[in-house]
Amino acid sequence: MSDSGVSTGIGTDVRARLGGHLRENGMLLALVAIVVLFVVLCRTVPPQPIDFLSAQNITNLFLQNSYVIIMALGMLLVIVSGHIDLSVGSVAAFTGAVAAALTVKAGLPVWLVIPATLAVGGLIGAAQGYWVAFWRIPSFIVTLAGMLVFRGLTLWLLGGQNIGPFPKTFQGMANGFVPDLFGDLDQAALGLERLNGTAVLVVVAAAMVLIWLGLRARARDTEFGITPEPAGLFWARNIVVSAALVFVGWKLAQFRGLPNVLVILVILTVLYAFVTENTTAGRRIYATGGNEKAAKLSGIRTNRLVFWCFVNMGALAALAGMIVTARLNSATPKAGTGFELDVIAAVFIGGASMAGGSGKIVGVVVGALIMGVMNNGMSILGIGIDYQQVIKGLVLLAAVIFDVYNKNK
Amino acid sequence: MPVLLEMREISKVFPGVRALDRVDLSVEQGEIHAICGENGAGKSTLMKVLSGVYPQGSYDGEIRFDGEVLHLKGIRDSEARGIIIIHQELALVPLLSIAENLFLGNEVARGQVINWPETFQRTERLLAKVGLKDAPTTKVEKLGVGKQQLIEIAKALAKDVRLLILDEPTAALQENDSQKLLDLMLELKAQGVTQIIISHKLNEISRVADRITVIRDGATVSTLNRAEITEDRIIRDMVGRDMAHRYPDREPKIGEVLMEVRDWNVWHPDQAGRQVIKRAGFTVRKGEIVGIAGLMGTGRTELAMSLFGRSYGRNISGEVLIGGKPADTSTVARAIDAGLAYVTEDRKALGLVLEEPISRNITLANLAGVAMRGILDKRRETRVAESYRKQMSIRTPGVHQKAVNLSGGNQQKVVLSKWLFTDPQVLILDEPTRGIDVGAKFEIYNIMNQLAEMGKAVVMISSEMPELLGMCDRIYVMNEGRIVGELPRGKASQEAIMALILKDSGKAA
Description:
The complex is a heterodimer of chains A (409) and B (509).
Chain A: H1 5-44, H2 55-80, H3 88-105, H4 110-135, H5 139-158, H6 168-175, H7 185-190, H8 197-224, H9 231-254, H10 260-278, H11 280-290, H12 292-296, H13 302-328, H14 339-349, H15 361-380, H16 385-408
Helix pairs in contact in A: 1-15, 1-16, 2-9, 2-10, 2-13, 2-14, 2-15, 3-4, 3-5, 3-13, 4-5, 4-13, 6-13, 8-9, 10-11, 14-15, 14-16
Chain B: E1 3-14, E2 17-28, E3 32-36, H1 43-50, E4 60-65, E5 68-69, H2 75-80, E6 83-86, H3 98-102, E7 109-110, E8 113-114, H4 116-129, H5 145-157, E9 163-167, H6 175-190, E10 194-198, H7 202-208, E11 211-216, E12 219-225, H8 231-239, E13 257-267, E14 275-285, E15 289-293, H9 300-307, E16 314-322, E17 325-326, H10 332-337, E18 340-343, H11 347-351, H12 358-363, E19 371-372, E20 375-376, H13 378-391, H14 408-420, E21 426-430, H15 438-453, E22 457-461, H16 465-471, E23 474-479, E24 482-488, H17 494-508
Parallel strand pairs in B: 3-10, 3-11, 6-9, 9-10, 15-22, 15-23, 18-21, 21-22
Antiparallel strand pairs in B: 1-2, 1-4, 4-5, 7-8, 11-12, 13-14, 13-16, 16-17, 19-20, 23-24
Helix pairs in contact in B: 4-5
């Protein structure tokens, strides 16, 4: 009680703030470093040099990791609220199987299957969230049970077999691309064999919006009397990010354009970033995770919030399940095995706290990309699944140690 | 008396702050030495230096113990010399037994195997020393805070203590447990144990201390002998100015009845058949400060929390009227809408989201006030927080600081701001000045007076009777879940309150 109160507080806070910038920039830097590492390794290690950043591989990267990112968005909310969901891999598999049964077996149209499957996911989330939120059964246990139950139900529903193939429209969710609005015009003009004008336009616009948002946030910080991060750091980061965006867009434009999955991903990321940072609901979730009792005594219905976090998680797991199924063009009993670990790892690499109350959407996406790039790069290099797991585990540990070290320093 | 401990010119610098600036402290063999100072004055830092939490080399100055210069590398070093500190937050393991706790890390064992018979024997001897009769196998969680505090002392005695340091030992204790603890300190003194006590409670200090060292802003202000000890003198040294009145003056402007509680009954949430609040009823008027006095555990907090959205208890029955009309207080949100606000007794655990910024804490109970259709206006939020920072003079470099970095008094102001932002009519303040230093207390009192001035009704729950007597227009006295009496300002005194409690307890027995 009688510690040197306010005064030491200032010192720690300055450090904490620098630490915060360090964290966000550090993760981004780690992502860039990992990408560069794989570019070099893919060039030198295999007998035939491989271009890690080829248009096709970049497209693959997004297609392969979209479901981890999508589920990580929901997992962040669950973890921020102070809980965890271990069942997402099994739920994704089960909902994929449901989608398959509805489409292939029952012959329902895609426009009906997608919302129905999302609803099933939401119901599953509700069933688990009910016990966690209203009965106060630890989420670890409820969702561990869910992990077993829904894996079992997947096997039961599929009868141990694969169900497929799917109609083109359903596959399009995972394997489709946004049609180019400019058609062949630009290709002739620029003398390139193929270039998707829409893709280029979209990424350039995105980069500009990103910089504009960054500048606005800086202006607001200054207005509020928060010391913004140094201008040099700000511009360095934004230039790197924008350059990367434009580069990715350019590459995608030379292949088949913007994957549908990427569009879904970006929309969801923006939506969840907005919800977590700019809405009362988001704020309440953080307060619930930060101090549930205080939140409750401030009139927040914490139980309901936790419940809805699980419902949301279930629906996102269903979306991910459909994308996985569409990508493989069949529902398989083994789909989504181990996804929960990738998803949870992405959230913690992204800077969320195990205790709840902190973590950011941007961090989670970067965390998921780090996991994704490593998965993809190591597979290209032909590194065995044994080593892959060891390396991924160590990266997770290192990221969290880095966090804790920064906090204690 | 020979000098046991001599700390000379101790300076400790944290990044950007000089927490201790050439502090001198000299403790004589066999005395009880009190250290006083406001929050943030550096008392705890000084004790951390003494106990080796901050090792030799991380501070300047010299510590002599028994005439010998100490080079402490950690807590183990200081404990090996018999310097034992009992922190404010008790360091007991609730699920282990008394015996296990007493010898934790210091087990009576042959090799790695614990010698239980001897452990129990020694435990019983130690418990007798601190006046406890509980079985050594009792789990610590079954004991009240008062007894737990005594167990901490017994634990220190188990280690051949030469200098016992108690950091705010009575902060969480009720009156009679505090008295027991102070008695025990005097008894230990008679047995020759030198003690240092850190406390905010001046009446306790003047009761047990032989000498007092007052610290202000990281420096020693004075060391007073027993003869020089008066509360006024201590306060003057602590805050650096004369405090003519401990409680600010107020011209009460009392209006009509704003809130009335009738026939309020609450049962214990877990223990079936135990009624915690029995037919309680009270009224508060506009512009009035009403106190609720009573011993700890008598149901004051339970009364407040059950009124505030049924946050405590079950099978709640009774009626709440606000402004003459029945009010729905069945959930916290509805209670807030009805114009009720409740400032909790435990601001860290129940009042604040410590890891979040001040601004977010202030708006938490009324997010709608800074949002449009569920979307936050962060500019407005910052403006709101800034205006409360000024109004309440919350001392912080900015409202985007985390709440955890504030001192107790400033944290309390944040909690008060949070509730003022809900624009309540009735504020229930539960121990609003607990763990807050004298200067900040005065500020909180001023805020309370302003609230009354604005026409709000204020209910103040406090264990410190002088505070109730100094602040309240009327005092209700609670005992064992009942309201047993009501004293207007003119008739209220400590004796009158105690008389009501004792009379009621006598009836019950």
